[in-house]
Amino acid sequence: MREEHTTEPVAEPPGAARAAPPAGYRPCDVRQAVQRAVSERCRATHTPCDTDALADALLVASELTTNAILHGGGVTDVRVDVTGPGIRVSVSDRSDELPVAVPEDEQRRGRRPGGHGWPIVCRLARDVRVSDLPAGGKCITAEVPLS
Fold first, then answer.
1. Rounded to whole angstroms, how far apart are CA atoms 27 and 101?
2. DSSP for residue 93
3. Which one-letter DSSP state was computed for residue 34?
């Protein structure tokens, strides 16, 4: 599932709301940061939160963080930004390897457990980018629509 990966630096747009998780970078911490950022956006704009969209954003955040821990040598940074109609979750890790989906035939034959996280991220996010980091490693940024 290595179709269209773009490599470019991750930049924060002016005025973007950002919620930083604690330095532990556990999936639950990143999900809490997403929950907090979305709740603050809904409160500030006086709009109801779309619970399905929030569930998608929480799942993407959890998958990106878990994949960085399991396959990327550990999480080195996390950014959560509300960007207009969506939320951007960026997770950096130590690995230069691009994420890949486990082929379905390998999953069916039980050769490798898992392999569902990256396809989930790609399905739920409006935009997914993989950026090389100057000191090595990568940053995966997924933007999930909030409505």
1. 20
2. E
3. H
Query: Structure tokens of 141?
Result: 């940024």
Give the length of the chain.
147
How far apart CA 116 and CA 137 sit, in angstroms, is 22
pTM of the model: 0.80
Distance, CA of 11 to CA of 93 (rounded, Å): 17
Query: What is the phi-psi region of residue 121: left when phi exceeds 0, alpha when psi lies from -120 to 50, beta otherwise?
Result: alpha
Name the H helices within the chain: 27-45, 51-71, 104-108, 117-124
Report yes or no: 116 and 108 within 8 Å, Cβ to Cβ.
no
What Cα–Cα distance (Å) separates residue 15 from each residue in 11, 31, 75? Answer: 12, 22, 26
Residue-wise pLDDT for 80-109, tens only, equals 999 888 999 999 999 999 998 777 666 566
Q: Which residue has the higher pLDDT, 70 or 11?
A: 70
Is the separation of the CB atoms in 53 and 146 below 8 Å?
A: yes
Mean pLDDT to the nearest integer, 56-70? 96
